[in-house]
Amino acid sequence: MRESMSRPPLVREVPIGELGTGLLAMPATARWFYLLAHGAGAGMRHEFMEAIALALAARDVATLRWELPYMAAGRARPDRPAVAEAAVRAAWTEAAAHARELPRFAGGKSFGGRMTSGAHAAEPLPGLRGLAFLGFPLHPPDKPGVERAAHLAATAPSPLLFLQGDRDDLADLALLRPVVRGLGRRAKLTVIAHADHGFDVLVRSGRTRAEVLDELAAAIAAWMETVTRPRTRI
Question: Does residue 73 lie within any of the structural domains?
Fold first, then answer.
C-alpha cells in the first residue's frame, strides 16, 4: 500500500459522548487544539466551518467541530444559555480524549463562541489556554449595546482573541474596541478588512475568500503560539 493511502484522513467523525459525534481535523503537524463551536444559524458542516477548519489545519491547529443540542436535533431556535453552556462543558470534557497532549483552546463562530465564553465565565473549563472568537456577536443588528460582553470579565485570567470584520453588523467596532481595552492585556482584537459577520467580502474589495480564511487562520495560530510560548525569566 502506498504511503499516501495509509495515512489517516485529515478530517474524520469522532464520538463526543452524549452530544453525538464531531468532526476532528488533526494534521500530522498539529501544535494546538481548538474546540470549535458553530454559529446560531448553521451547524458544524457549514461551508465556513469546514473552510476555517482546513485553513487552521494548514497552520498546525487541530480542530474539533461539534453541534449544540438544538442544531443536532434539527431545531431552528438556539438553546437557552444554560443548556448551551452545559453542552459546551460536556464537549470540552469529551474533547480531552481527542486533543492528545496539545494545548487546548476553545471558542467558535458567533453564538457558539459566546456560549463557550459564557460557560467558562460561569465555571472555568479545566486546562483551557484561551478563547478565540470568530465574530463575537456583541449586539443584535441595529440594536447597538455591550450587554452581551458583560460576562467576559469573569473569564479572567484566560487570554481572549477577537476576530471581527469591519463590516460586521453584530459588532460595532466603536463599541467593541472599548470592551476589549477594558479586558486588559489578555485581550486582543484583530480586525479583518472589508469582512462582514460571516467574513464574506465584497468583490470590489479586491480580496478573495481564500485570503480572508488564511488571514483568520494565521491570526489564530500566531496568537496561540504567543499564548503557549514559554516565558523567559530574567
Answer: yes
126: exposed, middle or buried (C-beta count within 10 Å: 0-12, 13-18, 19+)?
exposed
What pLDDT score was predicted for residue 234?
57
Question: Dihedral of CA 2/100/43/202: which sign?
Answer: negative
User: What is the DSSP secondary-structure string of 132-173?
Assistant: EEES---S-TT----GGGGGGGGGTTS-EEEEEETT-TTS-H
Q: The domain that contains 54 carries what CATH number?
A: 3.40.50.1820
Q: Which domain holds residue 31?
A: 10-228
147-202 tens-digit pLDDT: 999 999 999 999 999 999 999 999 999 999 999 999 999 999 999 999 999 999 98
CA 115 to chain centre: 11
Phi, psi dihedral angles at 99 (to 5 degrees): -85, -10
- Tell me the pTM: 0.94
Q: Is residue 23 part of a domain?
A: yes
Q: How confident is the model at residue 3 (pLDDT cuts 50, 70, 90)?
A: very low
Say how many domains are in the chain: 1
Asked whether residue 109 is domain-assigned, the answer is: yes
Does residue 5 lie within any of the structural domains?
no
- In sequence order, the β-bridge partners of residue 108 are 37, 133
* pLDDT > 70 fraction of the chain, expressed in percent and rounded: 95
CA dist., res. 90 & res. 92, Å (int): 5
